[in-house]
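Exercise (ungraded).
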Amino acid sequence: MADIILKTEDVMIKFGGLTAVSGFSIEVERGSITSLIGPNGAGKTTCFNIITGFYKPTSGRVFFKGEDITPLEPHLVCKTGIARTFQNIRLFSGGTVLQNVMTGCWVRQKSPWWSAPIQLPSFRREERQMKERSMSLLGAVGLEKLAQETATGLPYGAQRRLEIARALATEPELLLLDEPAAGMNPQESLELMDFIRHIRDKFKVTILMIEHDMKVVMGVSEWIRVLDYGQLIAEGTPADIRTNTKVIEAYLGKEAAGKAEAR
Ligand SMILES: Nc1ncnc2c1ncn2[C@@H]1O[C@H](COP(=O)(O)OP(=O)(O)OP(=O)(O)O)[C@@H](O)[C@H]1O
Ligand SMILES: [Mg+2]
C-alpha cells in the first residue's frame, strides 16, 4: 500500500466573496516529486499557505503523516516536519548566508531560550553543532564559499538555493517549493532539475513544487496536479498532462486546445 505523507480533504477557502480554492483533495506519496501547476491566480500558493498553517481553510482538513494539522500555527506545522520556500524570496536582509541557514536550525533547538544570554556550555555546544550542520547544508547546495556574504546580495539563483538550505535546516520530511525556478537563467533552471532530485535523494524528503517553467515541471515531476480557478482539473504523469485537453485549454484558451486536439 502506498505510504501517503500528505493528504488534503475537500479543502476550501474564501476571501470575502472570492472562493480562491475549493474541493482541493490530494494525496502525496512519501519520497515522490509532485508538481502543482496552473495559470496565474489559480490558487497554488494559497494551497501551500493552507498546508503550512499560514491560512486556515474555510472548510476541509489537512493531514500530515496521518495527523490532522489543520489547526496548527505555522511554527508548529514546521516542527511536525513540513518546510517551505516562498514565491517572493524571504531572506533576512542584513543577515549573512550562514546566519540565514542557522535560523532554520532553531526549530530543532533543545537548549531553553533563557540559556542564550548566559551562554551555558550546553547552549554553546548546540550553537557550534548548528554552525557545523549549517555549513554542511551550504555545502550541499553549493554555497559554502559564500557563507559570510550578505544573503540578499546574492544573485537570484543562489538566493533560491539558500532558501532551500534554510528549509532543510528545519529537518523536514516534506519540502514545499514555491516557484524555485523563478528568476533563474536557462542554465540555472536546467541545473535546478538535477538539484531537486539530489535534494530528494540525499535528505530523503518528499517534494511538492509549484512551478511555471514547463521544462522543469516536465523534467523532474513524477506526478502533476493542475489547478484552474481554484479547482483541480487534471492529474497524472508528465506525459498525461502534456496532452490533456483541459490543461491546454486552461493555459491557452479553448480555441488553441481545439487546434491541439485536431493535430
Ligand atoms: N490573503 C488574501 N486575501 C485575498 N485574496 C487572496 C489572498 N491570498 C490569495 N488571494 C487570492 O486568491 C487567488 C489565488 O491566489 P494565489 O496566490 O494562490 O495564486 P497562484 O496560483 O499562486 O498564482 P501565481 O502563479 O500568480 O503565483 C487570487 O485571486 C488572489 O488574489
Ligand atoms: Mg503563487
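Further reading is listed at the end of the chapter. For now, observe: The mean pLDDT is 91. Residues 44-45, 87 surround magnesium ion (ligand 2) (CB under 6 Å).
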